[in-house]
Fold each of these.
Amino acid sequence: MAVEEAQGEKTPVHRVVPATFTPPPSSVDTVPSPAGKSSIVAIITSFHAGYFRISLSLCSQALLWKTLSSPSTDPHGLRPILRALPSFAFLLLWSLALLSLLLLSLLFVLRCLLRPQSLRGELSHPIGMNYFFAPFASSLLLLQSTPFIPANSALYRVLCCLLCFPILCLDVKIYGGWFTHGKNFLSLAANPTSQVSVIGNLVGARAAAEMGWREAGTCVFALGIAHYLVIFVTLYQRLVDGSVLPAMLRPAFFLLFAAPSMASLAWDSIAGDFDISCRMLFFLSLFLFTTLVSRPKLFKRPIRKFDIAWWAYSFPLTVLALAATEYTQKVKLWLPNVLMVVLTLISVTVTIMLLVFTAIRPNSMLPDNDLFQSPSTESRSSPSTLPL
Amino acid sequence: MENTEGSGPLRDGASSHELPPLFTYITSEGVAGFDTSSSPPGDCTVTQAAINSSNSTCINAGTPIISIPAAHSHNHAHSLSISLPSSPSALNGERIKGVVFSDKTEPKAREVCANNGEGTNASGLPPRKPAKFHSQPMHVGFESVSKFDQNLARKDRLKDNRYNSFKTWSGRLENQLSNLHGKSQDQAQISDLQDREAEILPAVHRYFDALEGPELETLKASEELVLPEDNKWPFLLRFPISSFGMCLGLSSQAMLWKTLSASPSLSFLRLSPVVNLVLWCAATALIALVAAIYSLKIIFFFEAVRREYYHPVRVNFFFAPWVACLFLAIGVPPRVSGDLHHAWWYVLMAPILCLELKIYGQWMSGGQRRLSKVANPSNHMSIVGNFVGALLGASLGIKEGPLFFFAVGLAHYVVLFVTLYQRLPTNETLPKESHPVFFLFIAVPSVACMSWAKITGTFDLGSRIAYFIAMFLYASLAVRINFFRGFRFSLAWWAYTFPMTGAAIATIRYTAEVSNALTKILSIALSTISTIAVSGLLISTVLHAFVFDDLFPNDIAIAITYKKPKSRKNKSLLNRTPSPDANDLEACASKDDAWIQR
């Protein structure tokens, strides 16, 4: 196995790049784009699947607003306060989410056309491969939050199947690779972003269950949960410390509590009721959230520079707020209501802030060059400019 | 007056004739009211005469290096000499410290004596001998050295500056407290090289390097301690947190006897609830006592407590007091109180929650203390608290809180279970052979089974699965009982009895569901085993405490150096890095890489 040392950091981090990951040398095509040049071609060639974080956050935010504005079964709950959000704002958000999704998809397709070999490189990258689930998950979330199409219409079902199918194909490719790639693969390559693949499965499960297809939903749910268990244990073990995840990607730690929240939402749709397993998953996610926010030192370095990775903060918070909302439906106590309001406010604030920052400084979203080229040729690149 | 031992090892670069600057500063700046005190003139003359007789030669031997301002010596009727060792080493042998009441001539005499290292053999003192210090006005004759020694030995243990690095604020708290009582004082100690070394906390890999054994208690041959190995340390320093294991064992017994006397399927035994009452009161008293002693340790030896917290095995015992209190709350006799108030549950679970947030977070994201490195069977104690809390909460009727803790405990238990079963090569603490610590494996499934039954209200499938897992683990340990021999008794063994008790209680609960002869026999057998184990341990403890007098040996696990001692040859096969204080990340990564590339 080739072990490379990533420079540019004060503390040297051993980045283990298994030899099987490097694309064949003939496909190497380094097109150095000069730093700071923001031509259209440069933007397109430096695009990667990690940008779909934006669409993931916005679509989940739309789903949250839709859930909040739907009628609540708790007469004393605090939801009516949040219903004060005008429906116009919700439509605006939904349109923004749709727009972002379309734009990002377009950019991604263009990039694949311009640089076909980068696709393969990205699929082999331990961090990059997981974000391939993001566009499909965002579309499913958008579908669930759409105000026009009811859940049992034919169009809904067709779109759902169309979007779940790529998720299943990616499952076979990526999860199959965990078994077959050779020894120690998962223990080396597992990192917090691996949970995006699990989340993709769980979103698919929820969408299927909402449609009424409980068996299909259960099947995809089982797939997601089984692999979640493996990732959870592997991440907690952290066999090789800090080798795969650079410091700037630490916002991905927030995905730690996104997966159980999403699982609880999915099981809620499948079982029809926010039962004991859903509650246990929700509590686990709440605990992990508390653990992370009580360790501010972990996030001190990523906070310094605004980056595309910041968008990783928004989606988990939104999903946690969604799970809290469903929880208050079931348990009509005052504390969960307060929790729901607090989490919703946090998630909305964070999303709005991210939108503002992105609007003010769009250039900070662009990496310097496409780093999914062969890692051996780009040799000493600093981890902070790694994609994502 | 001679020093009881020879001059201790002089530290780098300091010779006895060079007085530390602090010493000169202190002697030159007197503080009114502190440096002086009124002492009966009788004392003064005795000591004065004694001093003069032995130091008469000193006074004439050369000029003092330090000039005391005349005003100082005249203004103070009696000046206390500061009891600083003349050589900077504070870790010498039995250095005599004391204060001398003297008059104005004394400072000069003292300085002169201190300067004897110049090699004034003519004065009759051996060259390079540190200055003499005299203790508090002792009217013992200076010729009876041994009696002097005895008295000093006891006093020294209290005022011995070698333990300062383990005391709270390096001993300054103790000084303040004894100042308040008007006792004789040691003023601010010079923190020399070795003191500073002792104050630095060892990193977690040092615990694995320097210690061995399933409880990381035994010092490896190549290692040294920062505290003297041949003396008996102060009692508080020797009192480990694993003493709370006793509370765990006893309070779980109280729980067992309550369940036994209240179980409907075992009512043919006709057990009286008095046993539960007696055990419960004994357990409460014991917890109060151990907690009081440990609080004293926190107040006076906070640094030692911190080192215990950073020990990979001992950190789990920090959950023990709260779990023991939870056992007490579950096993409370009906005569003492009916249903406990809900507030008790919140009060007891709050510290557990805080500890958990810290420790589980470290497993996930703390570089040095990640689980693959520090996982050991004692980690089960960090997890079982969740389930015990869930059991208590559900018995009190609380709905959501117990479920929260059950979920958190279950998730982390799965991780720990897998990690321990894997026996990763990076994990060095798992004992190769059997050891009583393995009984902790039984703890979580048994308690989880009972708490799930309480939460859901019935002994359903989930509880039965957990119960059968617990029984399987118990059986696989029981058939290896032959191997549980030849281990040194330690207080931590008490902590390993509560899983046996937990398994017995779970069996009794199971018997209530599935009531036939086999289950009844099993419940009686397991209860008997657990009671015998606890009684045996009790006898052992009493023996060690009163007959062998080694119940609290020197707690070497907390006194390791923060880096490998230079004098010993480094015999480790996997040389991590050139220097241990190089980047720890790199060290871990390079070692792990070596394993991966095998």
Amino acid sequence: MEWSMVFAMTTKVIETLAFSLFRIKSYLGRFLYQFQIFAKMTQDIEMKEQQPALSNSLSITAPSTFQNLKEIAALIEVGAYAREVRRIVRAIRWTIQLRRKLKASVLSAFLNYVLIPGSELHSRLYSYLPKEDDQDMELDTATSATQAPAKHPLPELEVYCCFLVLIFLIDQKRYSEAKACSSASIARLKNLNRRTVDVLASRLYFYYSLSYELTGDLAEIRGNLLALHRTATLRLDELGQETLLNLLLRNYLYYNLYDQAEKLRSKAPRFEAHSNQQFCRYLFYLGKIRTIQLEYTDAKESLLQAARKAPDAALGFRVICNKWAVIVRLLLGEIPERTIFMQKGMEKALRPYFELTNAVRIGDLELFKTVADKFSNTFSSDRTDNLIVRLRHNVIRTGLRNISISYSRISLADVAKKLRLDSPNPIADAESIVAKAIRDGAIDATLDHANGWMVSKETGDIYSTNEPQVAFNSRIAFCLNMHNEAVRALRFPPNSHKEKEGAEKRRERQQQEQELAKHIAEDDDDEF
Amino acid sequence: MDPKFTEVSQIFQLFKAAFVRKDFDTCIKLLSQLKVMLTEFKSLPPLFEEMPNAIQERTLARDIYEHAVFLSVKIEDQDALERDFFQLKPYYTDTYGLQPSSQEHPILGLNLLRLLVQNRIAEFHTELELLPSSALENPCIKHAIELEQSFMEGAYNRVLSARQTVPHEIYVYFMDLLAKTVRDEIAGCSEKAYDSLSINDARQMLLFSSDLDLVKYIEEEHPEWEIRKGFVFFQRAKESAPCKEIPSLQLINQTLSYARELERIV
């Protein structure tokens, strides 16, 4: 109990500090943000210390989670009254940390505390929770009875309760019930139009879509999601818009409807990302669409950015971003480095792609075919199998490039044999393939039809051309650009304007400058 | 709905008869009539209401649109083909309870082929993603996929030989169009790859039946090629010596910008 008071006090102190600092303008904006991070970190550390300390006796663990939930409810109330969204965001963050500890008893006690027992919402949510053994319940109801006044719950709190029950159901894998719960909650949300609810609402949308996806009924909710997106746009709810756009894209891409996904994405309003996770997801879906549409450069940029921005904890997401990024790079003709495949935790998942890269690098069609067949299950579950088929062309090109570099003159029959083209008429095939490769600029050679061979051109001395100058220029421009950006981003140290230079310090500084000036003058004289 | 249904079926029979007779004008007239009458049926997309004989109506509508697709190929109207195919598509993807049509795969393959010929490769791949893997085994669709691969790789002779192995006679129209595209591609590649070709070889590669056709083609499309002593010379003498002049203006600009930026460094 003492811990919670200390906890509450520190929150108050930090909040008042934050408030006072908030009044000071401009360059303290960044400082404040760091302060908030610091505040959150201290709170997290305190909470983590709290829970292991009290976990020894079973009967106290449930109330400590319950206490946390009560604190979260208090925070949400304060946030709702003061109309501050960041508190709600913080509340959600704490809830996610508590997710593992949610049990039916705790939830039912919390529902009793927050909602009016007997109200329609309460009875509906209560019905989802299984009834557990009574002694825990009695303990909790005893404590809650002393503290809870019967008050009319805020809409934020109601939505928050729906949210809690929903994640509880999903964690318990009761997906059909989760479906029903989420649909009912979404229906309730339609009437609420408050910014503070938006954050909770966007989480609800996400779990709504997730529960439908886990039961395999994604197509049903597409109409609902579109309607919700419309409403969010009308209400200028940017976080909701972002979340719903991502959910819709996920919906379309689940059913391979790339065309419709692209049409939606190009027409939907775009703005600064509010949430890093949503932005990462958006980049990933964009990358996927671009890959299928053969725009490999854009796709590579999006996918690599998504993989970089993703938080370290999101391992599965980063794995699949990397898988698609590897394939796009192979399709562009560049070979990804070995270190990509050796990243922590991803080695096993990326193994098939590693072997595929190997086959493409060597330029061996047979090896490529064996690898593709061996891992065809993985590829089809990743939905990359059609892309792998497109890679065949790259394998042939790489093989051709190797041959053209190693031989100055080689007959077409040998080329066909080396490329292992399995076709009824290999020489004619090889001839047309080489001709196309020459036209595309992949290899530098000429063909001699009468004698049936390919003659590689000599690569001249590159330093006698303009090439190095151009390469240098791009690098110089980049460095200069970086320098300019750095200069522009310079900031004064935050408290410099506060410190007035004391009279003593000023005298000292002036003295030093005078000495320096005398020194330089003397040096000059000496040199003369 | 029954009298309308029987009326539509009757006109459809007339349409089919005219189609077999190759009387395309009557076909077009009857088709527009049929389309107007189909708008009265409520169970079709986009309304999708559940009427008592919904399945029958949808099957009939699907048949009508399939014939419309075949008709547009016969009259060689690619826009009409695109329109009719888009109208037909919801019947394949969104309607349940209908017997799978025997023409489904040939028509899907036909659409893929059309996209390939019009060089809309991005849409080709997008459509390909929509097909389930079982459909990829179907000969019509497999044919289109292999064609696209050969096209990408540059094995144009495979493309041309595939013309002989068309799985459905309706594809012949597109194969002819494809042949023309392939010919242009081969000409472009040969230009870069060969110094010269004998007339016979050139004729063979570009698939002309006589020397005269070849000469006419060269005069029309590639006037820069020369024909001398029984050989076709592709003009590539221009790129022999690298330019001796230095791009002075560009260098001056670059150096000035370096100087300016360096001055800015405090």
